[in-house]
Amino acid sequence: MKLWKRAVGAVKDKNSIVVVYISRRNSFRNPELEAAIIKATSHDELLVDKRSAQVVFSWIRASPVSLGPLIWALSRRMEKTRSWVVAIKGLMLMHGIFHCKTPVVQMMQRLPFDLSTFSDGHSKPSKTWGFNSIIREYFAFLDQRAAIFLEQDNQNNNNKVEERSLLVQQLLKLEKWQSLLDLLLQIRPRAENMKVRLIMEAMDCVIIEIYDVSGIICNEIAKILLKIYSVTKHEAAMALRVLQMAMKQSEELSLFFAFCKEYGVLNATELPTVTRIPEEDVEELERIMNGVSVPEKTINYKEGFEEMNQMEMTAVVEEDTRGTLRTTITDKWVVFEENDEQQYGFSNETKIVAEDDAGKDHLLLPPVPINNVPVYNPYELPDLISF
Question: How far is CA 238 from CA 151, 173, 244, in A?
């Protein structure tokens, strides 16, 4: 029966490609791109055509105007299909397109097709309910992801001064990231017959995205914790809500990765590092919300971060007077002097320190992983390997 289905699917795909090349061309059609989309979203459950997917990504990177024909062709294929195989491949392809990091892709408001009520029409519901469920969940995440990235891009390009405080804007953005993580944690295989290569490939893509999103959330929470002693009552309420959600999601992440690891998802072998939120910070926010006056005190950020036990040791690279470099591994606080002012900071970044006759100049480089521990950049997501 499966062999018959594969044969029928192969015939459908070949016929679709033939129709593409004999159809009338217009400004919305690109035969080569359409053919690559059909191959990347074929009916073959056992084949993941990575080469065709890369052709689609290359078109978008090389020629942003290709987005129009791509969206038209992919939407048409997704709206017509009743096959869970074609649907999941289309979502994986769309996920990879989002990670092409081209401005035209970031301007997409929502997904150009709707799979929120998808149902496979080639098998009995008792056999396909799990596949239908994961497709609907995957679609919901990608649709929301497009909306969030567009909103953040518009905020970055908007020079208008916001009435809301910078901390409130930061908290609102963090709440959106947490809602996105919630959607990601809903994506999972729920039936025993879903242990197939295609579903495992899709879950690998989901796991990579979870690493990215959880890393962004951890970085943003670390920034917020530095400001909790100078927040208003309204800001304290928002921050408390964010911290409570972070603690809840930390437990959900552990359960999710344990499930995926047991199910056999390759990228779920290691749980992403999640910042532990100090209880005294939560209590401090609760006191501010209740209107309890907080006595002024000197904040020992070093002690706070040590209690969090999440900051890793980093390398401090120094250049001596002979022009040679030496690397010192340290978990101590570092004091930097610049323009006769002292700047304090935990040494969680790689710093190039060079002395000259005029004094000390400092050049900060991006964070680097130490001891194979990934360091997340909240403003740039790594490329997603979609297939």
Answer: 20, 11, 10
